[in-house]
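Narrative of accomplishments. A recurring question from our advisory board has been how the design workflow behaves on a single, concrete structure rather than in aggregate. To address it, we present the structure tokens for one chain from the evaluation set, followed by the sequence designed for it. No filtering or post-editing was applied between the two.
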């Protein structure tokens, strides 16, 4: 039996605005690579400003995969991401290119590298009922999950209705707690020598950049983009619409917040999100942490050295 050779795989992650995309572009140009997106909002078409999605002209001729994959009526899951990302990795590797997974959605990355536990299929009827409960009594879903599965509820924010609905759905359909379902054996990615590079910029400087980015998003037309997305059929409570920036833009459109208040709230929430990202990524094993932003020359040089020493 012929054993398939181990192929190189580069993974770049870190908090939002840490320069992941810039570093990925530089390394892709240096090592003949192609980039696989690992951002859960960039998956969706027309979510451009709030997701910091690179325009085609900004990609410097580097092929990008898993961007603009889903539309208004698509329910894109971590399982979908894992399946499609693994296909993309195989295609890139078979062309003798270096696949570079880049993004800040930790759950998607874990689904890709570690696999997901077998879980029941979605129940449209049950999800509709739970969504109705969430719309009428926003805190009810978290209370339901706390009673049924306190361990899982402790890991999910009370406003993250997508994750709450999925956790309750799995528990109801399987007649067991979600934590037990998620403890079942997984299907990890095999056949790759994985190099993980994590970006860890100075916290104060990162927060300055995050605040500036929030202001810039609204200045570039985030509210107008959000209005257009609603007109295209994206529901206000859909997964991408509940992401940072878009949620605050929805508040402006509904009259719940002024523009200035929405920007300040977006800044606060983005800083909190970056902190949660770092907490998640610190649990990853075998990470080469680089102290700085992906655009820093010394960080790029160190990353080049890591890739050079790991590739045959």
């Amino acid at each position: 039996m012929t054993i398939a050779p181990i192929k190189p795989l580069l993974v770049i992650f870190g908090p939002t605005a840490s320069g992941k995309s810039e570093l990925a572009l530089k390394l892709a140009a240096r090592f003949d690579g192609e980039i696989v997106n690992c951002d859960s909002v960039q998956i969706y078409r027309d979510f451009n400003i709030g997701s910091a999605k690179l325009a085609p002209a900004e990609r410097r001729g580097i092929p990008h995969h898993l961007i603009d994959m889903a539309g208004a009526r698509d329910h894109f899951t971590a399982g979908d991401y894992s399946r499609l990302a693994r296909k993309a990795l195989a295609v890139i590797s078979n062309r003798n290119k270096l696949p570079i997974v880049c993004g800040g959605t930790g759950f998607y990355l874990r689904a890709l590298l570690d696999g997901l536990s077998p879980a029941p299929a979605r129940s449209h009827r049950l999800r509709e009922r739970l969504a109705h409960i969430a719309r009428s009594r926003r805190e009810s879903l978290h209370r339901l999950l706390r009673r049924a599965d306190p361990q899982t509820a402790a890991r999910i924010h009370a406003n993250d209705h997508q994750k709450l609905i999925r956790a309750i759905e799995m528990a109801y359909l399987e007649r067991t707690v979600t934590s037990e379902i998620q403890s079942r054996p997984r299907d990890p990615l095999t056949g790759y020598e994985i190099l993980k590079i994590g970006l860890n910029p100075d916290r104060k400087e990162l927060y300055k950049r995050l605040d500036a980015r929030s202001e810039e998003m609204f200045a570039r037309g985030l509210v107008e983009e959000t209005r257009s997305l609603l007109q295209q059929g994206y529901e206000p409570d859909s997964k991408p619409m509940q992401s940072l920036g878009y949620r605050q833009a929805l508040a402006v459109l509904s009259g719940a917040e002024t523009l200035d208040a929405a920007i300040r709230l977006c800044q606060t929430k983005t800083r909190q999100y970056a902190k949660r990202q770092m907490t998640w990524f610190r649990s990853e094993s075998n990470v080469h942490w680089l102290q700085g932003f992906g655009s820093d020359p010394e960080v790029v040089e160190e990353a080049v050295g890591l890739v050079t020493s790991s590739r045959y």
